[in-house]
């Protein structure tokens, strides 16, 4: 029997790295995609030696226009057909919109939205044709409210959430499921990249590990849920936000994003 094949974006560290480890442990061959090749090569050697799975490493800057299509083209050239797609790659910037670096902002939109959408579009038809597949998109608790000082990031995650739920409904009965995961802050390099370690949202808090979130997220995806929010605390907040005026929700987010 052939092993199922999973592609993980942002696989050089954090959640992507842990998703790849988890799937290797469960017998999936892997395609690893991220900008930095060395950590993925190390992960590939570990997965192949420890679990006997085949690993393909594709160093790729997913912030380039058309990057999702380029990844899909490489899969086609190698005759690789995905059973699982983990759209994990993403990042943020913490700054007032008028002061944000425009180039970084547009790169973020390409990674968080464009590449995720394009890669999903290229992968879904084959999954539908084969009658099975699982897609996991990393949204965030940020998807449930406007977020001053991270306005574009919060909006991009709202896109991921709503896109995933809509696609999950479209694909009902096809054997293909789409799940948006909405964790709160996680102990990864995400905060350091955005220089937001001193934001009230994360400073002084004990954050769940990337391994914990990957384990939880895969379990939720296996259930075929359209979306899942991590932990009772964040579930309560996500539910409560539905009943608040949007401007009030934005003010709450502005406070949590303040630097301490």
Question: Could you characterize the architecture of this molecule?
Answer:
It is built from nine helices and seven strands; from the N terminus they run βαβαβαβαβαβααβαα. The longest helix is centred in the middle third of the chain and has 29 residues, at 102-130. The radius of gyration is 18 Å and the shape is globular. It has one domain: Rossmann fold. Strand 5 (133-138), helix 5 and strand 6 form a beta-alpha-beta unit. The chain has a seven-stranded parallel beta sheet, with helices on both faces. With 260 residues, it is α/β, with parallel strands linked by helices.
Intertermini distance:
55 Å
- Total of DSSP H or I helical runs spanning 4+ residues: 9
Biggest pleated-sheet summary? 7 strands, parallel
Radius of gyration: 18 Å
Summing up helix and strand content along with how strands pair, one would put the structural category as alpha/beta
- Overall pLDDT score: 94
In the CATH scheme, the class would be: Alpha Beta
Helix content: 40-55%
* Order of SSEs: EHEHEHEHEHEHHEHH
**What is the number of beta strands?**
7
CATH topology: Rossmann fold
Please, what is the CATH homologous superfamily? NAD(P)-binding Rossmann-like Domain
- Quaternary status: single chain
Number of domains: 1
């Amino acid at each position: 029997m052939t092993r199922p094949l999973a592609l993980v974006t942002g696989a050089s560290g954090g959640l992507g790295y842990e998703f790849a480890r988890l799937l290797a442990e469960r017998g999936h061959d892997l395609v690893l995609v991220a900008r930095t090749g060395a950590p993925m090569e190390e992960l590939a050697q570990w997965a192949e030696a420890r679990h006997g799975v085949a690993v393909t490493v594709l160093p790729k800057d997913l912030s380039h226009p058309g990057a999702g299509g380029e990844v899909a083209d490489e899969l086609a050239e190698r005759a690789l057909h995905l059973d699982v797609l983990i759209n994990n790659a993403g990042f943020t910037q913490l700054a007032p919109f008028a002061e944000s670096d425009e180039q970084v902002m547009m790169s973020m939109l390409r990674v968080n939205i464009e590449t995720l959408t394009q890669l999903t579009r290229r992968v879904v038809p084959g999954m539908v044709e084969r009658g099975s597949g699982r897609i996991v998109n990393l949204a965030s608790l940020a998807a449930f409210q406007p977020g001053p000082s991270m306005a574009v990031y919060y909006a991009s995650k709202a896109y991921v959430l709503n896109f995933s739920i809509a696609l999950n409904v479209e694909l009902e009965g096809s054997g293909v499921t789409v799940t948006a995961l909405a964790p709160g802050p996680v102990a990864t390099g995400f905060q350091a990249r955005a220089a937001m370690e001193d934001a009230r949202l994360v400073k002084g808090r004990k954050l769940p590990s990337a391994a914990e979130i990957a384990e939880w997220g895969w379990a939720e995806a296996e259930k075929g849920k359209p979306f899942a929010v991590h932990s009772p605390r964040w579930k309560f907040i996500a539910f409560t936000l539905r009943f608040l005026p949007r401007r009030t929700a934005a003010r709450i987010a502005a406070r949590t994003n303040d630097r301490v």
